[in-house]
Each structure stands twice: as C-alpha cells, then as structure tokens.
Amino acid sequence: xxxxxxxxxxxxxxxxxxxxxxxxxxxxxxxxxxxxxxxxxxxxxxxxxxxxxxxxxxxxxxxxxxxxxxxxxxxxxxxxxxxxxxxxxxxxxxxxxxxxxxxxxxxxxxxxxxxxxxxxxxxxxxxxxxxxxxxxxxxxxxxxxxxxxxxxxxxxxxxxxxxxxxxxxxxxxxxxxxxxxxxxxxxxxxxxxxxxxxxxxxxxxxxxxxxxxxxxxxxxxxxxxxxxxxxxxxxxxxxxxxxxxxxxxxxxxxxxxxxxxxxxxxxxxxxxxxxxxxxxxxxxxxxxxxxxxxxxxxxxxxxxxxxxxxxxxxxx
Amino acid sequence: xxxxxxxxxxxxxxxxxxxxxxxxxxxxxxxxxxxxxxxxxxxxxxxxxxxxxxxxxxxxxxxxxxxxxxxxxxxxxxxxxxxxxxxxxxxxx
Amino acid sequence: xxxxxxxxxxxxxxxxxxxxxxxxxxxxxxxxxxxxxxxxxxxxxxxxxxxxxxxxxxxxxxxxxxxxxxxxxxxxxxxxxxxxxxxxxxxxxxxxxxxxxx
Amino acid sequence: xxxxxxxxxxxxxxxxxxxxxxxxxxxxxxxxxxxxxxxxxxxxxxxxxxxxxxxxxxxxxxxxxxxxxxxxxxxxxxxxxxxxxxxxxxxxxxxxxxxxxxxxxxxxxxxxxxxxxxxxxxxxxxxxxxxxxxxxxxxxxxxxxxxxxxxxxxxxxxxxxxxxxxxx
Lengths: 316, 93, 102, 168
What we know:
The complex is a heterotetramer.
Chain B: H1 2-25, H2 29-50, H3 57-68, H4 71-79
Chain C: H1 2-29, H2 33-55, H3 62-89, H4 93-97
Helix pairs in contact in C: 1-2, 2-3
Chain D: H1 2-25, H2 33-50, H3 61-87, E1 96-101, H4 108-119, E2 123-129, E3 132-137, H5 144-158
Antiparallel strand pairs in D: 1-3, 2-3
C-alpha cells in the first residue's frame, strides 16, 4: 500500500544521520562551549525522534530536560571552568587513552544492544497485560501507570536518588556559606529586558506545567515533565532577579524537596497494612496516585531547581 | 499533504545541519549560542509539521520547546557577565 | 475549493521553508554577531509564522489551530526578547562609540 | 471597597487571558475546567506577585489588537529585507549603531519596543543604558530613525501614555 520510500522515511533517515552526526561533533569538538551548544541541539533532535517513535511522554521529558534545563546547567558549568580550550600540543598518550577507552566501551554497549534488539523475537511484550490491568491503576496513561503503579519501586528509588543528589550537592557548600542562598547572588537591571522577561514568562510556564501534569494522568506527560517545567521557570525568575533563590536551611524548601519521596514511602508502608509493601488499593487508586504525582512534581521541581543553582557561593 | 509536511520538515532539518558550521566555527560564544536558538525555533516548526501524522499530544512537545528553548540563551548571557550572575544591561559602557 | 486550499498550503510551506533557509544563510554569511542576529530573529520567526499558517487549514479543530498560533506567538516573544539580550551581551564599548547617534 | 474593586478588576484582566490559554491547551475539554480554574488562578496570583498591577502594566487589549496587523506586516517586510540580503551574492550590509533616547516608561513597554524593532526591517534592539536604547541597524541608508519614532508612538498610544510629558 504505502510507497517503499516516502517523505516520512526520508525524514526519519535524515534525522537519524543528524543525531549521530551531532553526537559525534559534540564529543569530539575541542571548544567546551561549542560542545554544550551541540548537546542542546542534540536534545532537540532526540525529542523529535521520540515524537516520531510515538513516545510523547519521553519526548516531553527530553524537550524539557535535554533542550531546556541541561543547557542552563552546562552553560553555567562551562562558565565556571576558566580553561576552555586545551592547548593542541598537550595531547599526551593518557589523554588519547581517555578518549579511546570510553569511545570503545560505548561502541561495545551500542553494538551489544543492537544485536539484542535485532535478534530477539518479539513474540510477546508486556503491552497487553499493562493495558488489561489499566483500570486498576486509577489512571488512563499507561506510562504513568507503569511509573507509579506497576514499577513504583523504580520511581520511588529514582526520586530518592534525586534527593540524595541534592544532599550531596549541599555537602559541597563551604562551611561559612552554609545558610546562604543557593548559587550566586543574582542581580539584574531594574525593569530591564531580563527582569521583564522573568516577570512575564513564569505564569505562562506555570499554566503549561499544570497542563502537562493534568494531562499526565490520562493522556501524556506527568510528574517528571511538569516538575522540570516548573523548575525551569523557577530558575528563570531567580536568574532574572525577580525572586530570591531559597537557602538550604529554609523549612519550606526542605519540605518541598522531601514531599514526594516521603509521601511515596508513606503510601508504600501503609500498603503493608492492607496487603503488602507498595500496594496501591484499587478503590483509592485514582486519588492516591494523583496525590503521589502532585507531591513528586513539587519535589522534582524544587530538587532540579536547587541542583541547577548549585551550592551557595560567593562571586570572586 | 502529510508528505508535503514531511518534505518541508526534512528541509528544516537540513537548515539546522548547515548551521552546525556556525556552532563549530564561532568565533564568539554568542555566535555558537545562536545555533541553539535556531535549532529550538526550527525544532518547534518541525514538531508542528510532523504532528498531523500523529496525535495532537505532539503539539505539546512543540509547546514545551517553545517555552524552554530560549532559557539556555538566558543562562548564556548571565554567564557572560563579569561575576557570572549579572545582567548584560547592567554593565555600564 | 480543496485544490485552492492545497495549493495555498503548499505555497505557504514553501515561503516558510524559504525564510528558514534565509535565516541559516544569514547566520553563515553575515560578517558579524549583530548582523547574524538580525537574520536569526527576523527570518526564523517569520518562517515559523508561515509554517503555522500553512498548518491552520489542516488543523483538526479550532482549538488545535489556536494552539498552533499560541506556540508561534510564544516562540516569537521568547526569541525576540532573548535576541536583545544576546545583542547586548555581544556589545562592546568601541562598537557604539564610533557613531555619535541622534 | 473602591480599592478592592480595582484590585479585582486588575486580577480579572489577567485571569481571563490565562483561562483562555488553558482552554486552548486542553482543546476545551469540559473535564479540564476545574483544574483550569486552579491553573488560571495560580497563574494570576503568580503574575500579580511578580508584576504587581500598576498604570504601566495597564494594557488596553483593543488598541493592542489594532496594532497587530501593522506590526505583522512590518515583520514580514523585515523578514523579506533580511532574506534578500542573506541570499544576495555580496550580502549588502552597511551596519551602524543608533543611540536612541527612549521616552516610553521602563519595563514592558520598552522591552516590547525592542522586541518589535528586532522583528522589523533593519533594526535590532540591544538593550538600554539609562534612557538610551542601543539599536543596531543593518543598513545606514534605510530611514530607520523615522521607523523607530513611529513605532514608539504607536506603543505609547496603545498603552495610553503621553510621550510629550515623559521628559523634562
């Protein structure tokens, strides 16, 4: 029926070539800032690829993280590194090895995965049982169901990892700076372009984030995507000097950061009384799942925001 | 019509690819940053063009990209100031 | 009727893609940062505008069509604002002093 | 009471656009009206917190809508202008800088002036220093100064601001 070579195939082929090309450029270019920009462009391409694969939830996460937040994080990191270009003459044997070893490891893993994907017979996937048991989870989005119900273990551990990362980042704070606001003290021109942008965009981002959160229950999106959007507009308002960055000793920011993992753990433990660990009873599945999702969104937003801003520091 | 959209989207991919030259060559960081700006705008257009072949959910990806695509550039102009936390407009000439 | 719609859509698509091409050409060929910013800001947002127009007649309903317009407006707003910041960031003393101004 | 009423009006002027934005995002799904109420309410509260209502933020939507066609037309001209230069074999450019004394109030109005100039033919806003706005021009032969002045006047009219009385 469909022609062997359509515009859709052409698009997909060009996209694949570009993804690999940008990835190679990004990892081989000497200028770190160029590598960062290439990584942002890579994020845009990968988001498009996920859309083409029909994985809108992943595409949303990639667009928010890869093309949005990672860029902010890495540009800040590159700016802190004073030496951006390594002198061409200083390529020693060790530097060469430091490139070859990860590259060959990556190649090995990629070819192993490719071998598996191409040789495994896909007689039966988990798709049918996931969809069959969907009514019991309280949500209609199969991805959310997997994340918060079937594989709730993974998600609980993931959010705990995120929280642990935040604590690790707080641990790098210099002693005499503990209790100060996260990151550098931001300052901007009063009523300038940046300040105006930072006053105007966050409400719009808030609505988009709530939309992605709300759609996450039944269609697409979810806690992680919405949390990332909230974190991004929060950071924008802080960078624009409109609101102050929180400090690690603040009680409200701490409860924000811990709300998700804590509520999740609480639900998991009360499940023990009913049946077993981490069981969400069918009767209360919908409100409970939404509540977990809401707490997780808050925690992810606060944690990502604090991680990107980093430990308190004083400008040199 | 879907075919026409995908052809257009393919050409847009090529325009981003061409701009990689500017990202690699620079010379200034602002020049490289513009490559990311272009990729974000073109990415929004590409996502809008390929969404008729799928679900309306794909437009939400375009929406998120439209919202957050400019943030990296904001981080860039802030990082380019003297103390890394300022505003390019503050610095007196 | 539908032939006219199809022809218009294709024409708008071509115009949109042409503006994106112009943006890339400008980014590659213009001599300095500020000239390149002109190309990026003006051409690409206009290209996105024409592509949005081309998609409107094919949109499933009025809400999808409005969403497309919203996405375009949001991109344009963010790009035009941020381009001023990049322009200012790349501005050095000697650039402005050469011209007395009005 | 009068203050309360004015406060409510200010809030409503933001709530309604946010609510419309939500309805567009959700394709007018009636099941989404309740979360929409929360979303638009939260956005209004955040917006009033970040940008408290005042004279300067008071935008007349009708005059703003009347600006749109002219602005869109000029941005089309801007795109054509820059596209022509980009494709031209010799890329004809005569770049120059203008230091323009802005008369509009600081904040939103000035940023919109800069944004609109950045989309119009030959001009690119590059921020301010005091009341001086730096504007980069692609071609010194273009009548840019007139274009800048008339754009500023159009924005002033849209927000009901008197340019003449702004400066001493």
